[in-house]
Amino acid sequence: EAQVTQNPRYLITVTGKKLTVTCSQNMNHEYMSWYRQDPGLGLRQIYYSMNVEVTDKGDVPEGYKVSRKEKRNFPLILESPSPNQTSLYFCASSPATEINEKLFFGSGTQLSVL
Amino acid sequence: QKEVEQNSGPLSVPEGAIASLNCTYSDRGSQSFFWYRQYSGKSPELIMFIYSNGDKEDGRFTAQLNKASQYVSLLIRDSQPSDSATYLCAVSRYGNNRLAFGKGNQVVVIP
User: Fold this and answer.
1) 3-state SS, one letter per residue, for B49-76
2) Are A103 and B46 a contacting pair at CB < 8 A?
3) What sign has the CA pseudo-torsion B75, A31, B92, A92?
4) I want to staple B62 with a disulfide (CB 3.0 to 4.6 A). Which of A63, A73, B28, B75 is the partner?
5) Neighbour-count burial of B59, counting CB atoms closer than 10 A to its CB (0-12 exposed, 13-18 middle, 19+ buried)
């Protein structure tokens, strides 16, 4: 089944404890992206990647890192999480590098930073 | 001005009625326009996209685009309880590789 898989689904952590949210897609998509969704603010892009070893900042990259060593994987790293990073995170992928085709979203990761 | 605005509050419509959602965008260079549906606790899923001025119909959904007015709308005809969800407008500038989302509009279809 074609899908974008995010793990974990829920995560509670404490301030400053490094964490990684994994994202993997099995559709051979070139484009992958991370979003966070907050009430009243909607979906905001954190980072995106057009291909292996190519990443770029979105609207809210501060406090996050990403890497794209393989086409299928695009992990989101929080080196020192803070409470303002408590949010619902979505990974997404797309077959087209011009993002004119639909995004396939993962199921989301609800992160709480205490 | 926000890049993509969806200003309407929650929309309650009777079953069988038409739900109308509006979205405005600020970047005149935007080329692609999308409507995503998001059920509570779920991820967004694409329901419509439109690139050209005018109307585009797909089943009970119609997207309308007016680039001169920088306005895109979504009509849901014969609304069903299963249409109760949040609808996200998204806009992309060709070649920008960024998709900007609005905050979303919640639709509640009342049986």
Assistant:
1) EECCCEEEEECCEEEEEECCCCEEEEEE
2) yes
3) positive
4) B75
5) exposed
Residue A54, both tokens: 């190519």
- Read off the pLDDT band of A42 (50, 70, 90): confident
Would the CB atoms of A99 and B46 count as touching at under 8 Å?
no
- Please, which residues 61-100 of chain B have a Cβ atom closer than 8 Å to chain A? 88, 92, 94-100
pLDDT tens digits, one per residue of A65-100: 999 999 999 999 999 999 999 999 999 998 866 656
Chain A: residue whose CA lies nearest to B105: A42
What are the chain A neighbours of B33 within 8 Å (beta carbons)? none
Q: What tokens were used for A62?
A: 């501060």
Give the mutation candidate from B23, B43, B45 for the A interface (greatest A CB count, under 10 A): B43
- What is the rounded average pLDDT for all residues in chain A? 93
B18 Cα to chain A: minimum distance (Å): 24
Please report which residue ranges of chain A form alpha helices under DSSP H: none
Question: Do the Cβ atoms of B43 and A97 come within 8 Å?
Answer: no
Helix (H) or strand (E) holding A4: strand A4-7
Higher pLDDT, A56 or B98: A56
- Report the C-alpha gap between B54 and B26 in whole angstroms: 19
